[in-house]
Q: What sequence folds into this?
């Protein structure tokens, strides 16, 4: 007996990948102007080119993500006190925007300190415990966080002679160049982003500094259940609850190729 899996539609794909968030937002009082960018899958050649250029392999879940959609962006507004405010911003950079952050000196001023210089001056913990901007630790920007921080895909520096495959983690780099761990995998981080609905500065909920008063007020008004917990000890979730079904990516990729062939 042969089983045939129907190719998912574009709308069905985004409904699955968003885990119903768009419908939830539509039913939330005050939320308006919901915009979800629908993008084509990233060509396999571009993914391979990125890996060859940076001498590292994308984790399987992120590779499947880019094979289905070249980045992600969902924004929404909120009406507050008679004013419409741009609040929600869920973003994953495209493969072209997945650029390495490094301590490169300015070409205009040889005396200008780079990121590594600043990091060494401010370093308070052993380098091995957190990312760094040295040549052996590779840091790539997943989300610029509207310039309040950067969510990064980080390949940690491995001990000399260690040939094991490096599994990158997701870290937050704040504006004081402090690192904060967010998630073990891209899939885990993506779900965290959906759970927090792209609220302003939500990543800071998992840092010692916490949310700013304004960001906390927005979260209390729109998603009060997120603040119901008295203490957030770790952003780690049960992995069994955070798996994005790979078949969703594969069928979307197949569907997109068929559309290109029809053209």
A:
């Amino acid at each position: 007996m042969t089983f045939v899996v129907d190719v998912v539609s574009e709308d069905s794909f985004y409904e699955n990948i968003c885990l119903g968030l768009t419908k939830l937002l539509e039913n939330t009082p005050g939320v308006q102007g919901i915009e979800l960018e629908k993008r084509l899958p990233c060509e396999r050649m571009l993914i391979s080119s990125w890996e060859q250029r940076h001498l590292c392999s994308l984790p399987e879940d992120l590779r499947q993500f880019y094979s289905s959609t070249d980045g992600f962006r969902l924004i929404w507004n909120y009406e507050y006190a008679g004013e419409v405010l741009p609040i929600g911003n869920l973003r994953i950079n495209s493969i072209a925007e997945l650029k390495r952050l490094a301590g490169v000196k300015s070409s205009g001023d040889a005396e200008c300190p780079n990121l590594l210089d600043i990091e060494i001056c401010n370093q308070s913990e052993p380098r091995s415990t957190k990312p760094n901007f040295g040549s052996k630790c590779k840091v790539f920007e997943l989300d610029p966080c509207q310039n309040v921080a950067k969510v990064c895909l980080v390949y940690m520096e491995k001990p000399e002679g260690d040939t094991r495959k490096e599994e990158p983690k997701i870290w937050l780099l704040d504006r004081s160049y402090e690192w904060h761990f967010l998630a073990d995998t891209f899939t885990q981080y993506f779900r965290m982003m959906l759970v927090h609905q792209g609220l302003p500065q939500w990543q800071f909920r998992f840092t010692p500094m916490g949310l700013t008063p304004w960001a906390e007020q927005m979260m209390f008004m729109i998603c009060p259940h997120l603040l119901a917990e008295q203490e957030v000890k770790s952003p780690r979730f049960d992995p069994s609850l955070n798996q994005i079904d790979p078949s969703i990516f594969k069928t979307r990729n197949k569907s997109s190729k068929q559309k290109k062939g029809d053209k």
